[in-house]
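Consider the following input, taken from an annotated entry for Imidazoleglycerol-phosphate dehydratase (Phenylobacterium deserti).
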Amino acid sequence: MSRTAEVVRNTKETQIRVAVDLDGTGVAKVSTGVGFFDHMLDSFARHGGIDIEVETVGDLHIDMHHTVEDTGIVLGQAINKALDGFKGIRRFGHAYVPMDETLTRCAIDLSNRPYLIWKSYFKTPKIGEMDTELFKEFHHAFAMNAGACVHLETLYGENSHHIAESGFKALARALRTAIELDPKTQGHAPSTKGVL
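Applying the prediction step yields:
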């Protein structure tokens, strides 16, 4: 069973292509025009064990908002599509990721009932050229379009780079567990409803 998908989304603000392989080895080919965001997506792929290709051309002459949010939308859609109705997966995952002085926790439910609880706060308004408020926008867009209930909380931390990166890594590690195939589900959606 191939758990791959490709999604293309073109608007007046962004042109995006995302391809994913849920059973990959964490290889990323990412180009968004935002260096730190590329670094975060590369980390997401590596720690999630998911191969991703992301090609985003956005209206960076305005700001980075559309580029980051819309990439989250399309990445979420691609993962949702590759999951094919959430059949046969573990569904739940969680992770704690320490990064120097920072500790971030993520719990995820691939329930097709999207939600985001976000409790991460940044000490600086930017990391490099990237506005730190955009990290919430990415995670919200991703959760809504992946059909994922995501609770992400930085328990403590000081350095904005560490807070952002531990968040991406925690989401990736939690997702890695949730998308694993579980033989006990016998290929069905893991729900008393029989469908997610």
